[in-house]
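Please fill in the sequence for the structure shown.

STRUCTURE ENCODING:
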């Protein structure tokens, strides 16, 4: 059975990530600082190689960004936010490894720190196939 964006997103959002207090199934309209850190998906993508000389296609590939909003930008010092972001990254990596073993859908991920005018965030681009 082909891997769908909906299935992949649901599996990723069902992961237990230590320290994440709330998970949203869609990007939230607004965030409340008392709920942080929170996790939500954004920018889903799907691709598949071309079908050639027959009816067999390659595996469906799905990519989703998981955003963990850590802290409002000016609440703590940058050093405290940086430390919290590193902890969230480590916890997210542990959850992704466990999910990769459990469901055998995750192929790879890349995680980076992002800051905006409002928040410190950790963003994981997760790729899977099936």
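FILLED IN BY: designer on duty
SEQUENCE:
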């Amino acid at each position: 059975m082909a891997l769908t964006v909906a299935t992949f997103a649901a599996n990723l959002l069902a992961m237990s990530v230590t320290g994440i207090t709330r998970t949203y199934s869609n990007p939230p309209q607004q965030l409340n600082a008392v709920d942080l850190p929170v996790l939500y998906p954004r920018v889903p993508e799907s691709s598949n190689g071309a079908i050639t000389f027959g009816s067999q296609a390659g595996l469906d590939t799905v990519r989703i960004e998981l955003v963990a909003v850590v802290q409002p930008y000016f609440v703590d010092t940058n050093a405290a936010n940086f430390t919290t972001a590193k902890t969230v990254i480590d916890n997210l990596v542990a959850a992704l490894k466990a999910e990769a073993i459990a469901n055998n859908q995750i192929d790879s991920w890349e995680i980076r720190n992002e800051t905006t005018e409002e928040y410190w965030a950790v963003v994981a681009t997760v790729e899977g196939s099936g």
